[in-house]
Design goal:
There is one protein chain. The chain is mainly beta. It has 2 domains: 38 residues, no CATH class; 107 residues, Beta Barrel (OB fold (Dihydrolipoamide Acetyltransferase, E2P)). The chain has 2 helices and 12 strands. It is globular and about 50 Å long.
Length: 155
């Protein structure tokens, strides 16, 4: 990723995606590509209205258009999971901080939202005595793919 101008990803003889490293990382065209190039928080979802998907952590605004009623696989990278200042912000949801690890320049943390574990990266971690946090993810940071099937390697 650091030295390439262009990357081609193949799987079982099939060309999955070709593009610049940042394009492949931020806009993968398949869940397999997203997973290969970094960690992802995966959520099964269903489109309930245009631009809105229901997920285990609640309703999320999404940018990629899908048909109402369509099942989808939603994903966002740990660095896209932010601490919200206000529960009224779009795509905000309450959670419980499970753990955090200081790595010098950032914290890696895990939180549970409605029993769903999520991993995040941030420069700081809120210090609330009860461990509650308000989290958010921008609609533009949510990747939307067809649902997993039996042949998918995504976990």
């Amino acid at each position: 990723m650091a030295i390439a101008d262009k990357i081609a990803m193949m799987q079982a003889g099939e060309l999955l995606q070709v593009g610049a490293p940042m394009e492949i990382y931020h806009k993968p065209n398949r869940a397999d590509v997203a997973e290969f190039f970094g960690s992802v928080n995966w959520l099964d979802g269903k489109v309930v209205e245009p631009g809105v998907a229901e997920s285990p952590i609640g309703k999320l605004l999404i940018e990629r258009s899908s048909k109402v009623g369509e099942k989808v696989l939603l994903g966002f990278r740990p660095e896209c999971l932010h601490f919200a200042n206000d529960a009224a912000e779009p795509n905000s949801f309450p959670g419980k901080l499970i753990s955090s690890t200081f790595l010098g320049d950032q914290f890696i943390f895990s939180a549970a939202v409605n029993g769903q574990p999520l991993v995040g990266k941030n420069r700081s971690v809120p210090q609330r005595p009860d461990g509650t946090v308000e989290l958010r993810v921008q609609p533009s940071d949510i990747m939307v793919f067809p649902p997993r099937d039996a042949s998918s390697n995504v976990s």
